[in-house]
Design a protein that fits this description.
Elements: H1 7-24, H2 26-52, H3 57-65, E1 70-74, E2 82-84, E3 92-94, E4 97-98, E5 124-134, E6 139-147, E7 158-163, E8 171-174, H4 176-182, E9 189-192, E10 195-205, E11 214-217, E12 227-231, H5 238-246, E13 249-253, H6 254-258, E14 264-265, E15 269-270, H7 273-313, H8 315-323, H9 328-365, H10 380-397, H11 399-406, H12 410-415, E16 417-418, H13 426-453, H14 463-485, H15 487-498, H16 503-514, H17 516-549, E17 560-566, H18 574-591, E18 595-601, E19 618-622, E20 651-653, H19 659-663, H20 669-676, E21 680-682, E22 692-699, H21 700-705, E23 726-734, E24 744-746, H22 748-754, E25 759-766, H23 773-783, E26 791-797, H24 805-833, H25 835-843, H26 848-874, H27 876-885, H28 900-920, E27 933-934
Parallel strand pairs: 6-11, 8-10, 16-27, 20-24, 21-23
Antiparallel strand pairs: 1-12, 1-13, 2-3, 3-4, 5-6, 5-12, 7-10, 8-11, 9-10, 14-15, 17-25, 17-26, 18-25, 19-22, 21-24, 22-23
Helix pairs in contact: 1-2, 1-9, 2-7, 2-9, 2-10, 7-10, 7-11, 7-17, 7-24, 9-10, 9-11, 13-14, 13-27, 14-17, 14-26, 14-27, 15-16, 16-17, 16-26, 17-24, 17-26, 17-27, 18-23, 24-26, 26-28
Length: 935
């Protein structure tokens, strides 16, 4: 190429040479394309999946309305400046403020919207709620609709699958899942709310999953409090909707949803759906950009190593091009264009695989509900960005090898010779500085974040509050980059040490130093994976340990709990509470509980006006000693682990036989005798004074008006609580039972002696074995059946704190898979590039065993370096957050909770495993005609 040759011609020749080299080195090209395809397919599939969960206006209108024009329902007081969002009718309020932020104006909400509609408007009334359905296994609560849902105007929201519409009030439609669950068929019987109905057909409900049981009855008055009136023919403009708002009616209008007007309420920002969708896409794009940056870094490192090997294999061909006029820029351009071409090919394949994979995954995980995946949406603009990203990644991967090729000596390349690598001091110095600065930034940021926790002088939106968090994360990343920049120098130091361990270690480490363009990116990619993994594992470990220390247990783990409450305006009476407790215990037994227990508590009047509190109603508490009361001006907060430990109602009445079920305690014979004789079981040591507790009572009126003691804080200066109605000292049985739901337990006999009036409050059910998933599901389903017009029970099973292993094990598996994959690429490249060296080694007597040992040390050095660098940087962010947490009294993260032993075993074990596998794979038979010439 002469100087007179046009720039365009040079680009065309470079592109032709690049495409030929891509085809000639098809093995390395396939590897690079594969590295690009994997993250691009993931990003593309994620983009399609997320986009498919977002409804278009037309899809939303179809699911909400079917073929109708709108639905309306009463929601506000007429003529009270009532408003609604154009596309979210449930988002409504009065007077320019959101509903709930101002009191509802005086007046009545209409019972129906018919008076606000034009005369003669056809409407379809449909209500919704829940009914109790008898099942093969017992009973459960299911969603229900009522009305003429088979009208053609509602096709799309309600679709008749088989059978016919109900012809009278004793016929129902059901979903397909209901037939199996209720053990019935079309034409068969089904029990709803203890009444018998005939199943007239099967219906598909757009918002219901295929596995969801639901029924449709014919009388819309069944759920009169939750009714919508569908308008099959009357289209509503935005002006029509606003007119309905004046009458206290909200509307979901097809016309408005398809073309929403701008709408804004003071204090709530924009309600424009387009603006909100744009903001959502900004968030999604930001998260995808972060994931792309992490994946792109790994791909650039691994593909860069592959390009380095490929470029060296092309040195002779490129040297020939140089000998006929190609200058350094032309040679670099050839290699860079190879990266561009392979990035584009990988991007196209990745995008195609991502779209196909998303379609397949949607078919597998879709539950049949139209609202899970509204449609198959392909965001072409975002996939275009992903494709551009793939081209950029491929091009960047080739930059460093292109630079090396441009600086190569044509004569040496034609001879096939390689000169020893020279190390300069600049990069190690800069890299070491970055490591030190990164560690310093992490520590300083952690301390600064701790200082900001209680600094009220700094605004909460000030940069001084989020900059320390950025430093906690950014500092370790800087240190990680420092490891990469100093990589070759660190390898050189390692080679000087390991060379003393034998010939194989010497050759392997020197090979790693000599081929830094391959080895440094390889261990950098491994280090990046380990950095993220160690960061995640350490944070999960310290946060779950902290959560376990402060976890509020409601019962021993695996115990069913039913908290009783009133469904009416009045609190439960003793008889009503006893009946609710009996029904709850029977339900627990039906689910499979082997034992049941009832905790009795004193009734409070927190939700009642003071005038309704009986004057003689007392509430007793175990008093907190003066030495444990908090200063009222202290910034230290106070909380109790469970409702039964509330300092203002901390006495629980339990039969001795119920202590194992409720508290997990089994008393000795002497302890049981003392408990039944008047002693209290105390699980909160701060309540004790010389082996006793002080129990005192105040009237309920005194508790409500604040003249009883806080039992948490000391009185303010000049504040003097009323004297107790009575006070008694009770002997205490101290138990080593941390994390208990109960603060103080009294036997029924002791409570009666003290004059404590209590009633059933919480029911417990113990299982002989950990509850199964079926038992848990059945408990939740049957819990809904306990509700009556008087009482109900909130039921669940105590799960205990989340085990760290639930998150750590999957994280370790993912990290190990990525490390093994990156190691396989790096070590495969090392074997490929070492073929001429193996030939030379074999020619001078090197045995297969020696070459195996070299492979072992290669794996140990490359993987070990990456593991150590990544783990060292990965523990820095958790340390920063641990420092930050020290200002949060009682919620500190502890450095001892970092799984140091696990991380050490992971770093050492995974490095040795990969090295051992590399030793087990036999080296290829050397080609003695390919030997390396030494410059």
């Amino acid at each position: 190429m002469s100087g007179a040759t046009s720039r365009g011609a040079r680009w065309r020749v470079a592109a032709r040479l690049a495409s030929r080299q891509v085809r000639r080195t098809w093995v390395s090209s396939l590897l690079i394309v594969s590295l690009v395809v994997l993250p691009i397919a993931g990003l593309s599939g994620a983009a399609v999946l997320v986009s498919s969960t977002m409804a278009t206006p037309a899809e939303r209108a179809k699911v909400e309305l079917g073929a109708a024009q709108a639905w309306v329902k009463p929601a506000g007081v007429p003529d009270a400046d009532f408003w609604q969002s154009p596309t979210e009718p449930e988002w409504s309020g009065y007077g320019g403020q959101a509903e709930g932020s101002v009191p509802q104006p005086p007046g009545e909400i209409p019972t129906d919207p018919l008076a606000a509609l034009p005369a003669g408007t056809r409407t379809i009334e449909v209500s919704s709620g829940q009914v109790r359905m008898a099942t093969v296994a017992g009973a459960t609560m299911v969603d229900a609709w009522a009305g003429a849902v088979t009208d053609p105007a509602l096709e799309g929201r309600f679709t008749l699958v088989s059978g016919r519409a109900p012809e009278n009030d004793r016929e129902v439609l059901v979903t397909a899942a209901t037939l199996e669950r209720a053990g019935t068929r079309v034409g068969g019987q089904i029990s709803l709310d203890e009444a018998e109905y005939t199943v007239s057909g099967v219906i598909d409900i757009a918002v219901a999953a295929d596995a969801q049981s639901a029924v449709v009855l014919s009388d819309p008055e069944l759920f009169a409090g939750n009714t919508k009136w569908y308008l099959p023919d009357l289209a509503l403009s935005w002006a029509d909707v606003q007119k309905l708002n004046e009458a206290g009616i909200v509307a979901f209008s097809r016309e408005v949803v398809l073309d929403p007007p701008p709408f804004q309420v003071e204090g709530w920002g924009t309600m424009d759906p387009a603006q909100r969708d744009l903001q959502l896409w900004f968030s999604i794009t930001g998260m995808m950009a972060a994931a792309a940056a992490a994946a792109g870094y790994m791909v650039v490192m691994l593909a860069g190593a592959a390009f380095a090997v490929s470029a060296r294999r092309q040195q002779r061909a490129l040297a020939i091009a140089a000998s006929v006029g190609a200058d350094a820029r032309d040679l670099g351009r050839v290699v860079r264009l190879q990266g561009t071409v392979l990035g584009a090919v990988g991007g196209l394949i990745g995008v195609a695989l991502g779209i196909g994979g998303a379609a397949s995954l949607m078919g597998v995980i879709g539950n049949g509900s139209a609202t899970m995946f509204w449609g198959f949406h392909v965001p072409w603009w975002l996939l275009g960005c992903v494709l551009v990203f793939a081209v950029i990644v491929g091009t960047v991967s080739a930059l460093a090898p292109a630079r090396e090729v441009a600086r190569s000596d044509a004569l040496r390349a034609l001879r096939g010779a390689r000169r020893p690598q020279k190390l300069t001091a600049a990069r190690p110095l800069w890299g070491s500085l970055m490591i030190v600065v990164g560690i310093g930034i992490t520590i300083v940021s952690g301390l600064s974040a701790a200082a900001m926790t209680f600094n009220d002088g700094v605004a909460y939106d000030s940069a001084l509050r989020w900059l320390p968090i950025a430093g906690i994360i950014g500092g370790p990343i800087l240190a990680q980059l420092g490891f990469v920049l100093s990589g070759r120098w660190l390898l050189w130091l390692t080679s000087r040490t390991l060379s003393r361990l034998g010939l194989a270690a010497r050759i392997a480490t020197r090979d790693a130093v000599a081929n830094g363009a391959r080895t440094v990116p390889a261990f950098a990619s491994i280090g990046a994976t380990v950095f993220v993994g160690v960061f995640a594992v350490s944070m999960v470990a310290v946060t779950t340990a902290q959560s376990a220390r402060t976890y509020s247990y409601s019962a021993p783990v695996g115990t069913a709990i039913g908290t009783l409450y009133s469904t009416g305006p009045e609190p439960l009476t003793v008889a009503q509470a006893n009946e609710a407790a009996r029904a709850t215990a029977e339900m627990f037994a039906e689910v499979g509980a082997s034992e049941s227990a009832v905790a009795w508590r004193q009734s409070t009047s927190d939700s009642n006006p003071e005038a309704e509190i009986p004057g003689d109603q007392l509430r007793a508490v175990a008093l907190t000693p003066e030495r444990h009361l908090l200063d009222p001006e202290s910034p230290q907060g106070f909380s109790w682990q469970s409702e039964l430990q509330d300092p203002r109602n901390n006495l629980t009445v339990l039969d001795a036989d119920d202590l194992p079920t409720v508290m997990g305690l089994t008393l000795t014979a002497s302890q049981r005798a003392a408990y039944e004789g008047g002693a209290a079981v105390v699980a909160v040591p701060d309540l004790l004074t010389d082996g006793t507790i002080e129990v005192a009572a105040w009237t309920e009126r005194q508790w409500q008006d604040g003249t009883a003691p806080s039992n948490v804080f000391r009185p303010w200066p000049g504040q003097e609580p009323d004297p107790a109605q009575w006070s008694k000292t009770v002997d205490a049985l101290t138990v080593d039972a941390p994390h208990q739901p109960v603060a103080v337990a009294l036997s029924p006999q002791t409570a009666e002696k003290l004059g404590i009036q209590s009633q059933a409050a919480v029911v417990y059910g113990a299982f002989s074995a950990p509850p199964t998933t079926d038992q848990r599901d059945r408990l939740m389903a049957l819990g809904e059946t306990l509700r009556t017009d008087i009482a109900a029970a909130s039921v669940w099973i105590e799960p205990g704190p989340v085990e760290a292993a639930v998150w750590i094990v999957p994280l370790l598996i993912v990290m190990a898979v990525l490390v093994v994959g990156a190691s396989a690429v790096a070590l495969g490249l090392a074997r490929f590039e070492r073929r001429p060296d193996d030939a030379t080694l074999s020619a001078v007597g090197g045995t297969t065993a020696l070459r195996r040992r070299i492979a072992f040390w290669q794996g140990l050095v490359i993987v070990g370096f990456g593991m150590v660098a990544g783990a060292a940087a990965g523990v820095l962010p958790p340390i920063g957050f641990i420092l930050q947490s020290q200002a949060q009294v009682g919620r500190e993260l502890l450095i001892a909770d970092v799984p140091w032993v696990l991380l050490l075993v992971l770093v050492a074990g995974l490095s040795l495993v990969v090295a051992a596998v590399n030793w087990l794979v036999p080296p290829r038979r050397p080609d003695l005609t390919r030997r390396t010439a030494i410059a």
